[in-house]
Amino acid sequence: MTRSIATTFDQPVAPGLRRPTLGERVDSVLARVDPGVIGVVFVILALAVYYFSDPSRSGFYNHFVWQADAFLHGRFAIAYPVVDGPYTNGYFQDVLPLPSDPGQASYALLPFPPLPAVLLLPFAALFGLATNSQLFGVVLGAINVGLAFRMTTRLTNRRGASILATIFFAFGTVYWYAAMLSTTWFLAHVVAVTFSLLGITLALDGERRERAGAAVQAVKRNATSSNPVIAAFQESSMFLSWYRRARAYFEPVQFMAGLVFGVAVLARLTVIFGAPFFLFVGPGGSMFKRGASAALGALIPVVVLLGYNLLSSGHVFNPAYDYLYHSEYLGYMPPDLQIDTSFGIEDVRHIPLNLLIMFGWLPDIPADCSLSSLVACIGIKPSQIGMSILLTSPAYLLAVPLVIRHWRLRVVKGATLAVVAIAFVNLMHFSQGWVQFGYRFSNDFAPFALVLVTLAIAWLSRRTWTTALSVVLVGGSVLVNAWGVYWGVKLGW
Questions:
Q1: Rounded to an integer, what is the distance from CA 275 to the centroid of its chain?
Q2: Is 240's pLDDT higher than 70?
Q3: Distance (Å, rounded) from C-alpha 206 to C-alpha 256?
Q4: How far apart are CA 267 and CA 59, in angstroms?
Q5: How far is CA 158 from CA 274, 404, 460, 477, in A?
Q6: In what order do the strands lie in the sheet with 96-97?
Q7: In Å, how far from its chain's centre is CA 265?
Q8: How confident is the model at residue 20 (pLDDT cuts 50, 70, 90)?
Q9: Domain ranges across the chain
Q10: Inter-residue contact 491 to 394 (CB < 8 Å)
């Protein structure tokens, strides 16, 4: 289908046919407010919430600061282990120690893609190892909330739906926990979300502008063909001739969308599997042209990452992951659910256990918690292994009826395939994270899932009771994540 999602879900109601719903009345009020103002308010609100969620910020795990410092000293490897002085890292996990002679300086490689360290370079140049990477993550995380709102306004004209969806993303998913904490692993998620949101928005903008400019371009083509001087010049110009042929297969704006989205790979590798979205969404007019243009753009950061791996480690794929797989402590799972290290690092046989963590893992419940002893239930706290995404963010369920009912829409197909592909690859990984609230890998597909949730809220806002359902599920998601952030900080995670 070629219709935009706005023309599908945002049809105006003819006066007198029925009373406007609650959602429509709210939209009529919010439509008077400049969306730029709303975006800024979201950034300020998120900055305050993320900052005061954990104002102490110990900076305990700041691998990327050490990586930025290594770059500034002309090295790929970080100094490790550093056990003396004001800044130490001997306690770091996820490092590959390099051989060194006794008495000589020792170093280690990090397994993480380098983009967060690159973004920290200016701050590391000014503050050295004192750079507060967690504070950087808080600020960038708040900016991402503004970007998320901007993206939602490209999906629907219903301002209330955009605001509710943004509230869900900012405070009703584990993105809140990731942004407020922003230690090494979570900072990588925050940075990847930035470029995922930008790439998706650019594709949406490109498609909207392509539609709006179609009539104008038709007029220009008619004027050109009727002018014998211009027509003769184009026929004799080799450049214009090749340009016209290339434009049949290549769309510059979609190329840029793919390029920007691909940059997210330099923070979280598995994000690249969200690329199917750009087959269905963006300018170009056909799946082939959209996909080819976006693929060319995304290929550039991927090649950069592979080149970085080769230069830093001598391998196209970072060998630190294999080292960690065979040396990292993996005994945190219950005895009957141990990770089987005889499987590969990425192996479909890891999926059943990881699906349990993603969808079925429960919080830690005191043994004496029951209906007859509710006081004991106050001690319920998150499991450090993780927690079901359906418990932490129940508003994701809003996307289910949307996908079933409107799966033929290109934007729904693209976002659904992106979520499924990213989740599938992550589920094959030997570990799903440890010492975390919720399921942190969901941050990889959160921007694409936000597309579906936004569309679902807009679709459901046509009736008062379904609008109320959306509000209840988003409100419940916010409460659960506030509880999770509280316990995460209290437990020192």
A1: 13
A2: no
A3: 10
A4: 19
A5: 26, 22, 11, 21
A6: 78-79, 107-109, 96-97
A7: 11
A8: confident
A9: 5-58+134-490, 63-131
A10: no
CB 253 within 8 A of CB 202: yes
The pair phi, psi for residue 380, each rounded to 5°, is: -60, 130
pLDDT at 213: 72
Tokens of 352: 């059943």
Which ranges constitute the DSSP H helices of 73-158? Answer: 115-127, 133-153
Q: Which residue has the tokens 């282990």?
A: 81
The answer to whether the CB of 296 falls within 8 A of the CB of 332 is: no
Reference 305, options 133, 120, 111; nearest CA is: 111
Q: Tell me the per-residue pLDDT of 303-324, one tens digit each, with 9 for 90 and over.
A: 999 999 999 999 999 998 888 8
The pLDDT of residue 376 is 84
Alpha-carbon distance values, 121 to 88, 188, 311, 430 (Å): 19, 15, 19, 31
Six-digit token string for 120: 């920290």
Q: What local confidence, expressed as pLDDT, does residue 60 receive?
A: 86
Return the axis-axis angle of helices 133-153 and 184-225, rounded to nearest 10°. Answer: 40
How far apart are the C-alpha atoms of 233 and 367, rounded to whole Å?
83
Place of tokens 């010049």: 233
| Percent of the chain whose predicted confidence (pLDDT) is above 70 | 89
pLDDT tens, residue by residue, 28-68: 888 888 999 999 999 999 999 999 999 888 778 999 999 99
| Contact in structure between 349 and 343 (CB atoms under 8 Å) | yes
pLDDT of residue 266: 98
168 conformational bin, left if phi > 0, alpha if psi -120 to 50, beta if neither: alpha
Which distant-in-sequence residues (6+ apart) come within 8 Å of 160 by Cβ?
A: 23, 26, 27, 30, 461
Looking at residue 27, its pLDDT comes to: 76
pTM (two decimals): 0.90
Q: Rounded to whole angstroms, what are the CA distances from 73 to 77, 112, 276?
A: 10, 19, 39
